[in-house]
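Hello,

I think I submitted the SN-glycerol-1-phosphate job twice by accident. Can you confirm which output corresponds to this input? Input:
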Amino acid sequence: MTILEKFNARFGQIALLIDPEKTNTSLQLESLLKKASLAKIDYIFVGGSTVTRLEFEKTISLIKQFSTIPLVIFPGSSNQISPEADALLFLNLISGRNPDFLIGHHVACAEEVLEMNIEVIPTSYILIDGGKMTSVAYISQTTPIPAENTSIAINTAIAGKLMGHKVTYFDAGSGAINSVPLKTILGVKEKISCPIIVGGGIKTIEEIKKYEDVGANVIVIGNKIENDVDFLLDIQEHISNSQNTSIKNS
Ligand code: 1GP
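Support: Only one job matched these inputs. Its output is below.
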């Protein structure tokens, strides 16, 4: 099964986001990935706004050494690519109007990506205001869509789909105060069929359940686990409860 097929397979899948700038030692990664495997996390996403190529490559190799969880690159720039990953989200930052993040980085790494034997997933990347300035908005020099303006977010997602993107990623940015409004996800689901990834500021199992209920395929958690690794135990319990419910219902 490809990663895109796996995204499509069900709602409420969990991705653990690892930022190589913050988590990159063998000791840190080994213990984190052991817990992530026990929790049955669906994906490891790797990327960050200001990661060097060296940090990135070292982190990817260590993750592959310690875990078999599908590894998906969520790149902050053209130097965050690796043939060791299972897939690359080829992000178009379509909430912004900065040509570097619409086509510039893509051209810079195009030939190298083509030569890698890696699944490339064209992705609409849409920033939603999460109540504070985030690194991704600052580094990309783009303005996120105001959270209350659902129709702009929906139209942006539709435009991305029409441009041929296979996935829509709504991000309130790492460490956001407010996560992406549920009505944005609901609104998009009404208009187009496209797997949805959501992230930024998600800190509780209740939020995870709500995103699953409105049809988000993948829910990305970064900061919360960085600050409190035991949150993986809560996720483990949540995943095992969901699995038991689906067995009972089948
Ligand atoms: C940010 O979607 C991710 O790009 C995850 O955000 O670190 O706030 O969980 P958090």
